[in-house]
Amino acid sequence: MSSHCLLSNLSFAVPNSKPQLFPIPFSCHCNTFFYCNLIRPEQVCHKLRSYAPLVPLAARSSSSKRTEDTEEVIAEAREAVSYYLQELGVSHKESIEVALNSPNYVSMLIDSVRELDEFSLWNSTDFEKAYDPVPAIPPFKSKVYLMAKQKGDKGMLPFLESIGLTLSSATHLARYLSSNSLFQTLPTLINKVKYVKKIFFANSDDGGHIARNARQMMMHLSISIDEDVQQTLSFFEKIQARRGGLHLLGSQDASFRHLIESFPRLLLLPKESHMKRLMVFLDDIGVVEGCKRQILLLFPPIIFYDIEKDVRPRLQAILKDGLEAKDFGQMLLKYPWILSRSILQNYENILIFFDDEKIVCFLRDLGLDDDIIGRILGRCPEIFASSIGRTLKRKLNFLMGIGVSRSHLPRIIRKYPEFFVCDIHRALRPRMMYLMHVGLSKREVALMVCRFSPLLGYSIDEVLKPKVEFLMNSMGKPISDVVEYPRYFSYSLEKKIKPRYWVLNDRNLECSLKSMLGKNDEEFAAEFGKGKMLVPPL
Description:
This protein has about 550 residues and is mainly α. The protein has helices at about 5-10, 40-50, 70-85, 90-100, 105-120, 125-130, 140-150, 155-160, 165-180, 185-200, 205-220, 225-240, 250-260, 270-285, 290-300, 305-320, 325-335, 340-355, 370-380, 390-400, 410-415, 425-435, 440-450, 460-475, 480-485, 495-505, 515, 520-530; strands at about 25, 35.
């Protein structure tokens, strides 16, 4: 029979007819049988029958291993699986995709059929009513179909394997889903998986940014955590264990399986009445479409929260302390853990601590204290996952240990709340020691911190060292000049410090660091550049 033989036989099939278990077959040029109302013949040839043989399951015992399955056997098994899925309401196209991408499931069915053949068990009580071989119909295919039906997983096993789960994980998840009263049908599950992939992994080119936020959130966590945060950490650990680490968090191929295994309830949530409502809520608080996935991936349990019972009350608890609603979306984007019970409780404790330390109790008669708290929260929400005793108090003691007076603490924290999430041993102490190493006294360092607290956050190798070396070696100024103007370290070395120094040097002019850098371009040009900002070529 020619390669187009089956197309000429399509007239025998009744379009849109209700499929029977095994309709009238007709052979193809490859000496196999096809069934028109199951799979289109040309698709069977080029899809289900063109793939390489399956690799037998590793779980097969040596005594049950047989000769490698032939392409014919595999193709028939896939056709049976595809038909079974269509019987459950899955579309023709999707049934083929699932059959092609569930090799271990297909191998399991083949093994099960062969074991029953080997021990002549098809006439046992479980199968004697179900199995009724039809003359001229390949009996192997009918057995695979019946075996798939007998498994009782409602088609979930092959589908879950086809989306990336191992067969063992798929089996566990299928049991969980089928035992829950919220589970409906396989087509509903397929539709829900598509939606979950869309909201978690659309525009998946920002994995690096998501990974940085995840690391930062983990790094600054120093309190007892609730189950939601613990589950999130476990999810992160599964991704971290893979080659590529947390950078893969935003990758659908790498993360989806672990997401579903860690949070199987995702597949039971109502799509319209729950998940889509959350997406609308995120719109309302200013989270743009492309950024919603960052919140979901950094804190998946948020999708289980009831908007009216969980999210809005927690949001109001934060808004009452000075954060404006329009800024909440940005804060949630940076630190979605703020909505967890443990961190929200710690937030209340920290507000009390801040009040005791007089960090926000200034100008109370003008009502500015709440605004300051809101600004701190918006800039550095990681503070509210920090232990008061093990983290916050220790860092205030560190400042007082280098000579900062207690009266200066409120100003330092207001200007640089990120100080609370800097590591003492790996960041704060080495930076202060470096400044003393290059010639400053402990008192001078403390004075600089009081005048310009962001100094605490500058890297030695990337900021402090190159600017100190240029100050002393190229500009010929003493290190003591930075005590009067510590903001010197905030300016770009290549874009501002060097160009302005070269202008001054070209004119043999001397001035303080503040005069050199504290003016805008127009003011500097008017005073030192004869009305024109001249930058010598590098």
